[in-house]
Structure formats: structure tokens, C-alpha cells
Amino acid sequence: MREEKVKETGTTTLGLVCKDGVVLATERRATMGGMIAHKTTKKLFQID
Predict the structure, then answer these.
(1) Strand 35-38 vs strand 30-32: parallel, antiparallel, or unpaired?
(2) pLDDT category, 8, cuts 50, 70, 90?
(3) Residue 34 and residue 45: Cα distance in Å, rounded?
(4) What's the Cα-to-Cα distance from 21 to each of 35, 40, 42, rounded to whole Å?
(5) Does residue 46 belong to any structural domain of this protein?
(6) Does 47 reside within a domain?
(7) Is 26 inside any structural domain?
(8) Which residue in 11, 12, 13, 41 is the catalytic one?
């Protein structure tokens, strides 16, 4: 059996498709490996 490699990115982002639209959520911290680089950062942007 082959061992699977897990890729850890350090951030959490979630997207849900609903009947009336889309819901996107993410944490506000910016991480670099195990270190928190910034406690508040903007990861979601409104588009038209």
C-alpha cells in the first residue's frame, strides 16, 4: 500500500453553495507555517 502525503497549508477557508446563493468564510489570521504572521488580514474580497 502507498502512503498518502497530507499537505498542510495552515489556513481555513470554507465555501457552501445554497439555493439562494453562496456562503464563503475564512479565518482572519495570516499564517506562515506554524507562526501567526498577522492577527487580522483580509482574505475574502467582493467581486461583481
Answers:
(1) antiparallel
(2) low
(3) 25
(4) 34, 26, 21
(5) no
(6) no
(7) yes
(8) 11
The pTM (predicted TM-score) of the whole model is 0.48
Any catalytic annotation for residue 11? Answer: yes
Are 16 and 22 spatial neighbours (Cβ–Cβ below 8 Å)?
A: yes
Mean pLDDT of the chain: 77
Specify the residue for cell string 446563493. Answer: 21
24 within a domain of the structure (yes/no): yes
Q: Which cell numbers hold the place of 24?
A: 464563503
Distance CA 46, CA 11 (A): 20
**DSSP sequence for 22-48:** EEEEE-S-EEETTEEEESS--------
pLDDT at 20: 92
